[in-house]
C-alpha cells in the first residue's frame, strides 16, 4: 500500500474533525475524498502527509509520514499563495530548487497548460492560471505520490478538464494520487475509487459507478414548471413518487421510455412546464442517500428538508 490509515482520529477542542477513518490506497490509484466543507477532507490530507498529529496509525510509502522522502511527494494545499512578485516560471523554478532533482520548468509549465504565461507575474494571472501554477509546483519534483486538496477550485471548465488529463497521465505513469473535491463530476470522471466523508467519518468507499449502482437509487425526471406545487399534485394523483428535494421537483423511478408518460400526465392536466430532465443518479444522490446532506458545487453542506 502506498497510503494507509487505520482508525485515524483528530479533534480540535470540542470539534471532532476525524472520527476513526481507515483507508488503503494502492500504487497508481486515483483516490477521491468527497465531502462538503467541514467534512474533514483537509484534516485527513494533513494526517496522511504528517502535518498534523492524529491518533491512530498512518503509513505513507511504508513509513511514518513525517519520515517519508519529500523528493517522492507532491502536496497541493487548499490555501497556497506563492510570492506574487515572481513570474509563473520563477515560482515553479523556486519550488524545483527545493529538491535534489527536479524536472525541466518549461516542460512542467507546458504540462499544466501555461505555455504562454511563463513570464507573467503570478499576481497578474487569472484565478485559474494561478491554480495551474500551484499544480505545477507539486509536479516539479516528479513525485510518486500526489496529494491535491481541491486542485480545480476556481479553474474554468476547460482548465479543469486539462488538470484532469494531467492527473490521469500521472497515474498512468504510475503515480498514486489522492485528490479532494466537492465537484461530483470531477470525482466521477477522474477517480478510480472515492471515499465519502461526512462528519469526520468515511461513510462509503468504492469505484464511483459501483457506489451509484448500490446507493444511488433509480433514474429520475426533474421538472421545471412555473407552478411546481400544481405539477406535484397532478403527478401524485397519478401515483408518481418523488425524490426528497426541497429545491426542485424530481419524480423518482422513471425509466427512459416512461418520460413521455410523465409529460402526457402534465399536459393532460393543463400543467405548463418548460423543462423535463431525465437523468441517472450520480454521486450527489449517493451522498444524499447515505448522509441526508448534499455536497453541492459550492461545497456548502445542506440538510435536505431543513429549509
Ligand atoms: N486548525 C484547526 N483548528 C480548529 N478547528 C479546525 C482546524 N482545522 C479544521 N478544523 C475543524 O475541523 C472540521 C473539519 O475541517 P476540514 O478543514 O478538515 O474540512 P474539509 O472537509 O477540508 O472542509 P473544506 O472543504 O472547507 O476545506 C471543521 O469543523 C473545521 O472547522
From TrEMBL:
What does the record give under GO molecular function? Answer: ATP binding; ATP hydrolysis activity
SMART domains recorded: AAA
Alphabetically sorted, this entry's keywords are:
ATP-binding, Nucleotide-binding, Transport
Domain ABC transporter stretches: 3-224
Asked if the record carries the keyword Cell membrane, the reply is no
Q: Which PANTHER family match?
A: ABC TRANSPORTER ATP-BINDING PROTEIN, ABC TRANSPORTER ATP-BINDING PROTEIN NATA
InterPro entries listed in its UniProt record: AAA+_ATPase, ABC_transporter-like_ATP-bd, ABC_transporter-like_CS, ABC_transporter_ATP-binding, P-loop_NTPase
Instruction: Spell out the protein name for this chain.
Output: ATP-binding cassette domain-containing protein
The yes or no answer to whether the keyword Membrane is present is: no
Q: Which domain of life is it from?
A: Archaea
Which family does the entry's similarity section mention?
Answer: Belongs to the ABC transporter superfamily.
Species in which this protein is naturally found: Halosegnis rubeus
